[in-house]
Amino acid sequence: MLTRRKFIIVVGGVTLAGLAGCGGEEEVAVVCEPQPIVPGDECVVCGMFITEYPGPKAQVCTRNGQVLKFCSTSDLFVWLLQPDSVPQLRKAYVHDMGITDWDHPSDDAFIDAEVAVYVTEHPVMGAMGPTLATFGSEEDARAFMAEQGEGHLLGYEEIDVQVINDLARAHIRRTM
User: Fold this and answer.
1) Whole-number Cα distances in Å, 55 to 12, 33, 66, 88, 97
2) Segment 35-60, tens digit of pLDDT
3) Cβ neighbours, 10 Å, residue 109
4) Please, are residues 126 and 55 in contact by the beta-carbon 8 Å criterion?
5) Cβ pair 69, 43 in contact under 8 A
6) Domain segments of the chain: what residues?
7) How many CB atoms lie within 10 A of CB 140?
8) What InterPro entries does its record include (predicted)?
């Protein structure tokens, strides 16, 4: 005879067995390539129209296939440094400013953000004021720093909240 206790154990066991395969999220099979930035595209962090401003832009492909666009590399890292962003990230892209124009970066110049070389503490303004200039090679980054007369090289993993806060403080100092 099936007692209440046995019934609960059986139902609980069946339920647990059914849930065993639901432990992780399925990753959607999507193509993760940079998309063209077109007039009307807005930065997901600040809401500015991306094409109306100079400097390197950025994009993120999320695990669910969504493409997020950013008006600046600084805003990219504002997003990336949020704890809830990391699990969403599939791939990030930035412009290689060694092969494209600062005022109107080309959609053909996107590179993997993790392999880019970043220059901070330079005088050239981006969409949000001081920004991280991005390059596909250290040689191009050093040439940019020599041309500008200043700058500091960083790798992707070196960019943290302190770097972004320093950019914001530099912007405040320049506007005073």
Assistant:
1) 58, 20, 23, 25, 8
2) 999 999 999 999 999 999 999 999 99
3) 20
4) yes
5) yes
6) 38-175
7) 18
8) N2O_reductase_NosL (IPR008719)
| 16 alpha carbon, distance to own chain's centre | 38
Tokens for 5? 């206790």
Separation CA 151–CA 70 (nearest Å): 23
DSSP, collapsed to helix, strand or coil, labels residue 98 as: coil
Matching residue, tokens 């320049």: 174
Whole-angstrom distance, CA of residue 91 vs CA of residue 156: 13
Choose among 86, 96, 125, 93: nearest CA to 112: 93
Q: How far is CA 114 from CA 13, 22, 119, in A?
A: 45, 31, 14
Rounded distance between C-alpha atoms, residue 30 and residue 70, angstroms = 20
42 DSSP β-pair partners: 49
Helices (H), the chain: 4-19, 73-80, 138-148, 161-175
pTM over 0.90? The answer is: no
Report residues of the chain scoring pLDDT below 50.
4-21, 23, 28
Orientation of helix 161-175 relative to helix 73-80, angle to 10°: 140
